[in-house]
Design a protein that fits this description.
Layout lengths: L1 H21 L10 E6 L1 H4 L3 H12 L6 E6 L5 H6 L1 H4 L7 E5 L12 H20 L3 E5 L12 H11 L3 H7 L3 E3 L1 H15 L15 H14 L5 E8 L9 E4 L1 E8 L4 E7 L25 E7 L5 E6 L2 E7 H6 L1 E2 L7 H28 L8 H29 L5 E7 L2
Parallel strand pairs: 1-2, 1-3, 3-4, 4-5, 6-10
Antiparallel strand pairs: 6-7, 8-9, 9-14, 10-13, 11-12, 11-14
Helix pairs in contact: 3-10, 3-12, 12-13
Amino acid sequence: MRSLVRCLVASVALLATVSMSMADDFLFKANDRVLFLGDSITEQYQYSSDIELYLTTRFPTWNLTFINAGIGGDTAQGGKNRFKDHVLAEKPSVMTINFGMNDGGYGNFDPNRQKGYVEGTEAMLTMAKAAGVRVGLVSPNAVDRRVQERFNLYLETQKTFYEPLKDLAAKHGASFVDQYAITRASLEKMEADKADAVRPFGDGFHTSSNGGMFMAHAILTGLKAPALVSHVGIDRNSFGPGAGSKTKECTISGETKTETGVAFDRLDKALPIPVQGDWVSLLPYMNHLKDLNSYELSVSGLAAGKYSITIDDVEVATHTASELAEGVNLGNVTKGPVYDQAQKVFNAINQKNGMVHQRFRGVVMFNAPDWLADVAAERKPKELAKRTDQIQEKQAEIYKMAQPVKHRFEVKAVK
């Protein structure tokens, strides 16, 4: 009995080590205070909330805190000037910096504008490094020239304007994601495909709701986010309790070989991202999220034919025996109990971020007139503390929602 307990403890420790090693190269870490700094694209709470969704569902024990310090119309110089009050005062451990859309001026390349952009960006990187804040420096998304004629010019300006960022990041020990190059390549693919209805940026540069995920995918994969949610691989020929299966980031039990397929209980360590309806048309331009949301199931040894996959008796997908043998990604299904749980998490994140935005705009950014300065000096810290406590309570509720639960999976032939 003792040897069995020792084996179980060793197995749990090994799984924890494997899980942590998957995220070793990732910018974000457990217990981080995460801050998103930028302009109106950041203040939209689109890409930042989608990054938060990934981090919360993929790492439901990490206990992260999220702060958004985006201000519409801002530039790198503005970010530099408010860095002490809006960044360092929040004591983040990690942050992303995403300026440059407004800095370039939306027209011809201007070296003086670029000089100010580089100076402001370098000043922020210097202050962050001095404070021990890890940084992901991100070039802005490419503009969509299909939406506005003037963006034919600005698209090329962007390429030259953002060129110094990679070297700046390396100089200051920051991570760098060339979001501009990634999104431009995808936008050009949309053009080639004549996918005119696929518009991640409604006005050509601000994100639509699907554009938030378009940006989040580029940023997260650029920062080496782990792709795998979990994996179950089954050989039906030898399937049974404790045999005929391989797992990663999950455990299975109750293994049963049914008349035409298999059934088992699956307990994951994480949840897949709930794919939104308006993301679906963008999936071909985000690698179908295989590099970010891979919730895997493979079953070999099935007779030829079509099979349904159910979770707690809810059909979530159908695949052929050959597809199942090769392995399928259930991360992109849009129904079922796993999806429903992750969607509740997303809804709660969006609700909580309304409070985060009100705290930032209504309290952090509040500047009292001179005749109220003494009152504000007394009340502002108290109000900040109160709002922070309320947000932390909501964040704790979100983490409770995000804890995976056991589900019954079944793969059976479709008659």
